[in-house]
Amino acid sequence: MVNRAKTRQLKLYALKDAVLRKLLDEKKTEMIGYHTQNRKDLQLIQLEDYTFHLPAEQGRTKCVKHLGEIAIIPAAATRKVTKI
Question: Which of 16, 29, 51, 62 is close enough to 47 for a disulfide, judged by CB 3.0 to 4.6 Å?
Answer without folding.
Answer: 29
